[in-house]
Write a structure and sequence with these properties.
50% helix, binds acetyl coenzyme *A, 443 residues, 5% strand, globular, 6 strands, mainly alpha
Length: 443
Amino acid sequence: MAQSTSAEKAPAGKNTVTLIDNGTGRSWDLPILEGTEGPRVIDVRRLYADTGFFTYDPSYGATASCDSNITFIDGEAGVLRHAGYSIEDLAEHSDYMEVCYLLLHGELPNQAQRREFEKAITYHTMLHEQMMNFYRGFRRDSHPMAIMVGMVGAMSAFYHDSTDISDPYQRMVASHRLIAKMPTIAAMAYKYSIGQPFIYPRNDLSFAANFLHMTFAVPCEDFNIRPALARAMDRIFILHADHEQNASTSTVRIAGSSGANPFACIAAGIASLWGPAHGGANEAVLQMLQEIGSKERIPEFIERAKNKDDPFRLMGFGHRVYKHYDPRAAVLRKSCYEVLDDLGKRDEPLLGLAMELERIALEDDYFVEKKLFPNVDFYSGIILQAMGFPTTMFTVLFALARTVGWVAQWKEMVEDPHHKISRPRQLYTGYAKREFVPMDQRG
Ligand code: ACO
């Protein structure tokens, strides 16, 4: 039975909504919260205590799980901004290091801050030498995401001096370590899979160029990094740096809400990102394009995607939040041309196939009505493949780039004095209480 409460007694006004239980006729006024931008939010924190009700929103489609000042998305308008700066501006005028600073500190760095930050990151690019042994425990044909989950989780066993989350300095060092070591861990996962020696980081290179170096260089010859490719890599990192409360970020926050150390939390985020409905989609897009094979077969696959009895979905299409062209996909589409031009691969058949698929899908009533547009994963795979990455590395690159977002969101949560352990409730639909049946009496 619901109790009389402060919320019930709170005066109704323009900053409240009224909840009416039509069964009992009782009503409660719930506060409305307003952010800087975006939909207003009904504050239900006291709902259960005041009314005895839970809310029901299994995939959080209408639930704000936290307040955050890092990233803003307007899915209807196709807008993505970090600390107020549009993703288009950041991709065009900034670089990944600067975006990392922005996500962690809420402001773009001045020159001195930038230098200091870059120095802090490059200071941490090497891995503890003993961690190399871990790679050798994996099968050579392991999926590199499996290796990423293991290696990043293992960081908590190596960097004890940055696992005390109550110490701001340790939190900062852990953040820098995660951002700095992720490219090294990712590149080594790749090297291990192809049986080549690990290449150590080079701190004289930019973040993106160093990653390309560790991935593609070999000890026996010089490796020249093509500036256009380093720039494209950097842009891919920027575009994937953060995306507010998506599945993997929410996973990181939930893991972190219990006080778990940041390395364990980011490993949890990597696991969540792996799925094909999330970061695994870029790998799935390429597999899908290869399966389609030629433009003539596109209609067949479009029909399959529309068929409710067929589990097939057009990978790289649709998004929980964007009901408009994903702004990141628009930037990547342009980048795709630049990379293919630089590599002399403009006639890459997969690009032609992707563009035709996009054209046909965007004109199809099913996709138009459901507002299914290409998402960030639709073009990234084509670029990455042209750069020489195997498909299994695509999600790894996403994880590498997203690490700063996860870290920034984790830090924001831990630094919020009001944060508590996350503990959703449920609508129980199982058996009500029943008597235990001994084995010899069971049918
Ligand atoms: N192809 C065909 N139909 C689709 C697709 C698709 N790619 N995406 C959604 N739909 C349909 C669904 O069947 C559903 O139809 P219905 O209303 O008739 O049942 C409707 O559109 C809504 O789809 P939901 O799955 O309810 O939407 P949700 O927000 O839960 O899912 C998701 C979003 C997971 C991204 C989905 O669009 C999808 O599976 N896309 C393909 C995978 C993909 O590209 N994922 C990458 C996402 S971006 C990222 O993580 C970086």
